[in-house]
Structure formats: structure tokens, C-alpha cells
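Form 12-C: Joint structure prediction
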Amino acid sequence: MVILAAGEGKRMKSRLPKVLQPLAGRPLLAHVIDTAHRLSPQRILVVHGHGGEQVRAAFPEERVSWVLQERQLGTGHAAQQAVPRVPDDDTVLVLYGDVPLLGAEPLDRLVRMGAAGELGLLTMVPEDPAGYGRIVRDASGRVARSVEQKDATPEELAIRECNTGVLAAPARRLKGWLAQLRNDNAQGEYYLTDVIGLAVSQGVVVNPVSLADPIEALGVNDKVQLARLESVCRRRAVQALMTAGVTVVDPARIDVRGSVMHGQDVFVDINVVFEGRVKLGSGVRIGPGCVIRDSEVGDDTELFPYCVLDGAVIGAAARIGPFSRVRPTTELGPGVHVGNFVEVKNSTLGRDSKANHLSYVGDAQVGARVNVGAGTIIANYDGANKHRTVIHDDAHTGSNSVLVAPITVGEGATIAAGSTVVHEVPAGKLTIARARQSTLQSWQRPVKKPK
Ligand code: UD1
Ligand code: CA
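Section 2 - Result
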């Protein structure tokens, strides 16, 4: 199996190589490699070139072999780089790194045709054929060749059947055809698609498989097509969620860029974005505007509107938001409340602890039933290093208190409002660290001098 992924993708007008452009949260090429794996081929050869190292580095763990195409002289030239690595008696299936939504079933059929000595060719009739190669048939309706849009006559441009670029053939034959390619065309490139005409001229059966649903074979050349495929992915993902029992208030206003695992009776309000790997327990309710990335949310927990969760693990029956930000490596226990304008980072909050208003909790280990008072700030950063804070069970921090880390607050301790604590706060006591209130009896308010 050969995947062509060396092109620059000029039409993307981006610094990122085309095959790394994200679709549903993953690079285009990742989708194609997944499809390839589903067919369990003997080997997967990925032809890379433009942004070569960057492309390889994006797939550190993939079980694929990389083939370098140093100069991008066309899809045929790209295939030429890979085929020497394929034994003559194998069947080669060629996939394009920018055609990411293909299912395994039609590809299986192509491979069987290739194994039978034919050229299996995947075609489609898209709504808008612009940009695709057109399939030219002879008087008796048999495939004669494929012509690129830029080389096509007006009559050929009117043809609606298009080439998906995907084909399968016996390796020995494909190698022969590739060796005969010429670049005397509008783009000065070696076209893989010219092997179709060569096969016909040698009397090899060219067997077109027409896709019932052209959406599967849509290619991504520019941002318009990328957005179109994104909406296809979004629709599929939301459909799958709803079929699996998730209540989605408006299927057009939710984005799934990754995977969502979930229990029963999950409710998702509008404009929610899921990214990466998300796990939602049963009975989870997600308010409008939440962004949830790589996080786990326990049973019956409610996220109020506009929360941002990233790398968080939240226990059962917790209440988060509105307007809370929970950052990576945070663990919130069951029954925790994190409220309005509260940011939590790299911290744990034990069972039933609360930080309800306007706080920052960073690098802290907070016990159970702790009340983090409104406006409490954990000063975890001295300008050079971060320090840890430990707050034991049942402690209360007063409103507008500052805890300068590293610091420990004892069990059941109370910190008075407005305190800045820099030393250990003893258990069970009230600690006050602020100027004492005093009233000047003799003071008089100044009055304006007469003019
Ligand atoms: C190609 C087909 C066209 C088909 C369309 C389907 C050719 C000549 N044309 O056109 O018939 O309708 O796909 O989507 O094949 N690539 C390389 N090396 C290169 C050039 C391209 O690896 O030198 C890779 C690209 O990264 C891309 C794929 O091949 O993944 C297709 O190249 P692209 O330039 O997008 O071809 P299209 O113009 O879309
Ligand atoms: Ca393309």
C-alpha cells in the first residue's frame, strides 16, 4: 500500500504541509493511515517530501515506512519512488494523503481487482467536479483514460464522472507503466493518472468502482474543501453521539475534534467543543459554550456555561462554572464546586471542597471539605520557580487571602479575610495576617479653603 503525501499543497496557502492540516482534530494523513491499517496490508509506504521531517515527526509511533520524494514532480513520480520497495508479485493500492474519508469496503474491492491482474480504479460523481481529473470513456462506455482538469478540452470538462486518484494494480504492471510516464502536460508533472491510459493501450482490464457516496472521496486542496470535510466529520460524529443516546440540543452547534466516550443520559447544550480524548460519565450535563479537551468528567457532574477544561479529571456530582478554567493535571474529587471565574491548575481538590468565586488555585494539594474563600489567590510563582501548597481537610481561607507558596495550611485552619500568609498556618486556629483595623477619633475630614 502506498500513500502519496509529499505535495506542498500550494492551494492551502499555509506554512503547514497540507497532509498535516487538521481535520476533526487530527492531521489529514492520520485519517488516511488509519484507513490503510484497516485493510491490514503487508506494508504501508508513505511518500513524503515537502516539509519532510515535520511530516515524519508528526507520526512518531506509526507502523509505516517512509519514502522520500525529494522534488515534487507529480503523483506519478511520487509513486515511482515507492514501488521499488514492493515485490513484483504484490498488489499495490495507492491512496492520496489528501483524501481522508475513504471507507475500507471499496478499497477492498479495488485490491481484489488488482490481485486478479486488473487495474481497479475508484471513481465518483461529485456535486462539483471542479479540480478533479475526469474519466474519459470510449464509444462502448469503457474507461479509456483520465484527463486532468488543466489538460481537459471543454467537452471533457463537461464529464461528471471524476477520478478519485485511488487505484490498485499488480506491482509488476504498475512499475512498467510508471516507467513510461511523461510530463508533457499543462503542469509539467508526471501524472499517476496516466497509467490508466497506458493500461488500456496494453489491453489490461480497467475496472472502475464508482462510489455511491462521493463524500467519501472528497479531496482537500484548499481551506474551502477542508471546511467542507470538517462539517462532514462533525455531522458524522454528532450523529454517532446521538445514536448512542447523548442528548444534543442542536446538532449543528457542537464540534467533536477527537473522541468522546460517554455513559447514559448525557446532555450537551449548544456551542460545545470537544477535543482530543474526552470521557463523560452518565448523567453529565454540559452547559453552552464549554470547551473540553482531553478530560474526564464523572457521573452526574454539571458544567455550567462557558467552562474550559483541559487535561482535567473531575469526579462525580461536581459543579463547575459558569466561567471556570480547569487546566492540565488537575483532579477534582466528587462533589467539588468550582465556580465563577476560578482557575485551577496542576492541583487536586478533595471531596466536597469548594472554590466558588474569583480564585486561582495553582500547584496545590487541597484536602476534603475545604472552603477556598472568594478571591483567594495561591501565589505559586516567585518569578523564577513554582512552589507547592498543601491545604489540609476542612480548612477555610478567607476572602481575598493570598497564600504565598510553598506553604502548608493545617487541618481545620481558618485564614482571616484579606490575609497574606507566608508561614505555615496552624491547624484548628484562626490566623490573621493583615493590618489591624483602627479608627482615629481626632481625625477630621479636610475642607476646601475659602477663596
Ligand atoms: C489528483 C489527481 C486527480 C484526482 C484528484 C483526486 C493526479 C495527477 N491527479 O489531483 O486526477 O481527481 O487527485 O483528489 O494524480 N503528491 C506527492 N508528490 C507530488 C505531487 C503530489 O506526493 O509530487 C501527493 C500530494 O501530497 C497529495 C496527492 O499526491 O496527497 C495528490 O496531489 P494533488 O496535487 O493534490 O493532486 P490533485 O490536483 O488533487
Ligand atoms: Ca488533491
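Section 3 - Comments
The chain has two domains: 2-217, 253-431. The two ends are 96 Å apart (CA to CA).
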